[in-house]
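Reviewers of the previous submission asked for a worked example of the structure-prediction workflow described in the proposal, so we include one complete record here. The input consisted solely of the amino acid sequence. No template or homolog information was supplied to the procedure at any stage.
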Amino acid sequence: MMVAIHQPHYFPWLGYLAKMASVDKFILMDTVQLEKRSYMLRNRVIDPDGQIRYLNISCEKQDHFERAYRDLKTKDFETWTNRQKGILISAYKKCDYFDEVWDVIAPIFKEEHELLCDVTIHSINILRDIFRIDTPLVLQSDIEVESNLKKGKLILGLCKAVRANAYYAGRGASIQYLDTEECEREGVHVIYQKFQHPIYTQIGNHSFATGLSALDLLFNQGIEKSRKIFWNSIDNELRNCSQIAH
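From that input alone, the workflow returned the following structure tokens.
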């Protein structure tokens, strides 16, 4: 069984979803601490003038480095939801598929979640449904693992706890702290993701911007075409990784 492990992200980018779609289980790290300026409470879109805009969730940040992510509360619901709606309308209202996509994502601006983690997981589930990703999500808080484990040791501990024999790793910070030799000794084979970002038409006259929230693809291309673009972007070798890991 192959797993991927990641912090919850708000309306994540396509590479995040591709990692999720390529494994047997996707573990959401809800007991770690909130990282400063991270996608654990925001994500990026682009307006027709090429200006990057951030969809930020307001939350209580006092002592957040000492508290688990799953315990952080949201605040000023109407303020941040109205701000995000304004950004999305300004950026994508002229897209042919705006109404189609808006109807699907609008519930997140209506349900006043008390916890930040509930908002981000809600956004992930909206995208999972849209892209038809059926990989089960598992919360770190529901897994029995030693509480003092950090970084690479925590990744390995979570893999062993769910009896995974393969870990699907991104090419970000994990490369620096993940001890692949130790993982192999412990029976966990490490496979690195090789996601190639698809190129599609974005509204406006700016050059193509990569790494945005998956909402950008959806508003520009519509749900049906976005599904095709998404699944075609996942290399056949990566889509078969779970078979290799069994």
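Confidence is low (pLDDT under 50) at residues 242-246. We consider this example representative of the routine output the project will generate in years two and three.
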